[in-house]
Structure formats: C-alpha cells, structure tokens
Design a protein that fits this description.
Blueprint lengths: L1 E4 L5 H12 L4 E4 L11 H6 L7 E4 L2 E4 L1 H11 L10 H30 L8 H21 L13 H4 L2 H9 L8 H11 L2 H6 L6
Parallel strand pairs: 1-2
Antiparallel strand pairs: 1-3, 3-4
C-alpha cells in the first residue's frame, strides 16, 4: 500500500491526499512535521533530505515534492482525466502546476504565517497587506483564465485544480479583503462538490 508521511493540515500533503481521493487510491498516512515533529530526525532525512512533507513510498520508490507526487500518482494509477497524456493537454495542466509554485503559493504562504501562525501582537500588517495584494493579483489571473471554461485546463477537473485547492479554500477563509471575482468563486464552488475536497481540504487551517 502507498505510504504517505505528512500531517493532514499541511497544504502540500493535502494536495496528495486529494489526488489519492480522486484516484480512489488507498494509503497509509503517518503524522509528521509541524506539531508532530520528526521531520528532522535522521531516519526521516534518509527519505527526504529536505526535512519537509510530504514524502511517499510506493513499493521501492521513495518520492518527495508534492506536485511531482501528484503527477506520478496520476500517471501510474490510470489518472489521465487528471493528467492527460497528450503533450499539449498535459502542458496546459503543468503550466498551472508550475504557476502555483512560483506565483500564487508564496503570497498565500505569507498570509498563512501572518494571519494564522503569528500571534496578533506579532503580526506585520504591512507585510500581510503586501501579500494580500500579490495574492489578489494572482487570483485575478485565474479569474481571467476561467473565461475559457469551467476548469483551468479544460472541461474537467485536473491536477491544475488539485494543487491549488487548498490555496483557493484558504483565500476564501482568511479574514482579508477580496475583490469580487465571480468566476473564481464559481470555480471554488465546483471544487467543493468533490467529496475528496471536503474530506482533505475543507478542514481547520493551522
């Protein structure tokens, strides 16, 4: 059985868990990282020298980096609906997966640390506002892209959504000012219809 190391409240672990849910893939998960610790232990570092989560073991394969794990699981578990094999269609999905890492992920991470993981008296409000503005600009890009269809890479949900699901959930949950992005909200609501989204993404943010 697939084994996953990582706490379920980690956004990067949640990507992998939602992917497993969409693929109806059973797994064993081990709490590690955050309040559970263990991610800097020598035993874990032999699996993932970064000391981060998630890490998976699939047979003899040890793999880390959440987006890569999602690609691997879709490619090996008949997940072409999430990760097409045709080069152009696959590139459309991968473009958004890379964009998640480079563009929307950093300001959303800054908001998480500024609003949730910092004590009120320690919050840097200027940094929080700068992150909010960057995140809003990123979500406006998604808003415009959704002119082409209900999902980012076509007519069906794909890994493009799975790697951004936690972030769009947090965007709508954080106590920040949000521009009225109608298509973004509808896209988010379509994700919320997925049972695995409700199980693995819509959980308390810590």
């Amino acid at each position: 059985m697939l084994k996953i190391w990582g706490r379920r409240t980690s956004s990067n672990v949640q990507k992998v868990l939602w992917c497993c849910g969409e693929l109806e893939l059973p797994f064993e998960r081990v709490d590690i990282g955050g309040p559970f610790g263990g991610n800097q232990d020598a035993e874990y570092l032999t699996l993932n020298p970064n000391g981060l989560v998630p890490t998976i073991r699939d047979g003899d394969l040890i793999l880390w980096e959440s987006n890569t794990i999602c690609r691997y699981l879709a490619a090996t578990r008949h997940g072409e609906r999430l990760y097409p094999s045709a080069p152009a269609a696959r590139a459309s999905v991968e473009r958004w997966m890379d964009w998640q890492l480079s563009t929307i992920g950093p300001p959303m991470g800054a908001l998480l640390y500024g609003l949730i993981r910092s004590k009120p008296e320690q919050r840097d409000h200027a940094a929080i506002e700068a992150a909010r503005r960057k995140a809003a600009a990123g979500w406006m890009i998604v808003e415009d892209a959704l002119d082409a269809g209900p999902f980012l890479a076509g007519a069906e949900l794909s890994l493009a959504e799975i790697v951004m699901g936690t972030l769009v959930y947090r965007w709508h949950a954080f106590p920040v000012e949000r521009p009225p992005l109608r298509k973004l909200k509808s896209w988010y609501e379509r994700m919320r219809e997925r049972p695995a989204f409700k199980t693995h993404i819509e959980i308390p943010i810590t």
